[in-house]
Design brief:
Strand content: 5-15%
Distance between the termini: 150 Å
Shape: rod-shaped
Number of strands: 2
Radius of gyration: 53 Å
Largest sheet: 2 strands, antiparallel
Number of helices: 3
Order of helices and strands: HHEEH
Structural class: mainly alpha
Mean pLDDT: 75
Strand order of the largest sheet: 1-2
Low-confidence stretches: 134-139
Helix content: 55-70%
Length: 177
């Protein structure tokens, strides 16, 4: 390392005035930076506290907004789920009808019609084979449900006692004659 002679500057010039100015300017910049850091650290804490206070109401509003958005998204999701379910049910019903397969509702309607018809048949059979008292009527009406589920009146003639007795006898086969 070479040393510069006393009284000369960095470039080797005999004047030390330029070096002093550069050192003074550098020191001033250094002190200004240290002062800025000190100012920022002191003012920064105050500014940080102010920002925290200003952020608290915003946080509460943001929480409300987030809750509202989440609730709305949940509602939309549930509605979309119902829509998908209804669509699948509708399409599957249509497919079953095209394939001529009975649906659950069809089976329920059919069961109700069969129950009604069974009850009516039991009533007719009971009336037909009951002993005749008094004058024989020529006809009675019995209510039976038609395939559309509407009641239909069917006239069933009441037979005489001799015809009923003949109908109740077992049918004779060639073996029993």
């Amino acid at each position: 390392m070479s040393q510069t002679p006393k009284g000369s500057d960095i470039a080797g010039n005999p004047s030390g005035k330029g070096l002093d100015r550069v050192l003074a300017a550098g020191r001033s910049l250094w002190l200004a930076g240290v002062g800025a850091v000190a100012e920022v650290s002191e003012g920064g804490v105050e500014m940080f506290d102010r920002l925290v206070e200003r952020g608290k109401p915003l946080e509460a509003r943001q929480k409300k907004v987030v809750a509202a958005v989440a609730e709305r998204a949940g509602r939309i999701s549930r509605e979309a789920g119902r829509l998908v379910q209804d669509t699948v049910e509708f399409e599957s019903r249509g497919l079953l009808k095209k394939m001529n397969v009975m649906t659950r509702e069809d089976v329920k309607v059919l069961n109700a019609r069969i129950s009604t018809l069974t009850t009516k048949i039991d009533e007719v059979v009971a009336r037909r084979f009951a002993p005749v008292k008094g004058p024989v009527k020529s006809a009675k009406t019995v209510e039976i449900v038609d395939p559309a589920g509407e009641p239909a009146a069917v006239v069933i003639p009441v037979t005489s006692a001799a015809t009923r007795a003949k109908a109740t006898r077992p049918a004779q086969t060639k073996a029993t004659r």
